């Protein structure tokens, strides 16, 4: 390597060019005509400011400031260096402004992935509350089953996710935000609606049901409760579709209480008690391991716990 190449080697500028703080101090001396005033402006003591100027003079190999009882005056070399310093500081300010613009743009958007029940019955209220506090935040919502939510997060296609299965997918951290319970429902004309006692889990396991698809949190909970024996009459990819099929009389369905409150109240669906079976589940917020939610994602997470 030649001598010129060696002088231009990696990191060499860091040793030859003063840091921004020192250059800003020199500009303050030029502006105020006093090392003491420059020190006060920069929020440092006068001895510290004087020491920093001397260190910069040693680094550059030239005197920058003439000090006298009447104040501090730039030398001819100091005036020239100050002119260069001003350009460097202005470029740094432009760099910082650009970086801040990137941060603002990042913080003005929020990508949410949510499983169907949460997306349909809980998220709208949370997003309305978020909009009240952050009206300029643009939110995109990706709705799918719990498996799809995990895939979106792991591919960095979402900032925050919500799932309703029994376990937290690998590669994700989580926080429980609510409790939910699945219930068996039928149309009022179904024979189960006229039962006098609760349904046995074994009978539920042998009856074809209107079900969410595999990979959904609802299906995971039901399969676990029945030992993987749930029999599909129809498999559908949305809570709304399952509910509509049950209301039409196509067959019994297993759905979140959140999803069927209105239909139960209007007697469009009837709840069928089941004995000896637990269908409770946690609703969770999830995010990539090591990437704790920040900005609007953190604010949305706090709203889910309100």
TrEMBL record:
Domain named HTH lysR-type: residues: 18-75
Gene3D superfamilies hit by this protein: Periplasmic binding protein-like II, Winged helix-like DNA-binding domain superfamily/Winged helix DNA-binding domain
InterPro entries noted in UniProt: LysR_HTH_N (IPR000847), LysR_subst-bd (IPR005119), WH-like_DNA-bd_sf (IPR036388), WH_DNA-bd_sf (IPR036390)
Entry keyword set: DNA-binding, Transcription, Transcription regulation
One Pfam family from the record: HTH_1
Organism listed in the record: Streptomyces shenzhenensis
Superkingdom field: Bacteria
A GO term, aspect molecular function: transcription cis-regulatory region binding
Family note: Belongs to the LysR transcriptional regulatory family.
SUPFAM superfamilies for the chain: Periplasmic binding protein-like II (SSF53850), Winged helix' DNA-binding domain (SSF46785)
Protein name: LysR family transcriptional regulator
